[in-house]
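Pipeline run #58 for the internal structure catalog. This entry was flagged by the ingest filter as a single-chain record with no existing model, so it goes straight to prediction. Upstream metadata was stripped on purpose; only the residue string is passed forward. Reviewer on rotation: M.T. Logging verbosity set to normal.
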Amino acid sequence: MFAHRLKVLIPESHEVLLRLPSDVPTGEAEVIVLAGAEARETADRSVEEWLDALVQDVPPSPVIPLGALRREHLYE
């Protein structure tokens, strides 16, 4: 297995272009991105915002009085 470590600065566009040394073998490879803790906090906040927006779009659940529920309704 061949590993090559490269530090990059991720721009606002979130696009990174990698040029690998010629001794890196060609063919299928796996790319892993390790970001710092501050990037993780930003990502967590955006996920929380996305979930909050998703919850706001969910219609309220219907309220059914307990007395209106019958065992036979389970088999309908």
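catalog note: The chain is about 30% helix and 0% strand.
catalog note: Residues 30-57 form one domain.
status: ready for reviewer M.T.
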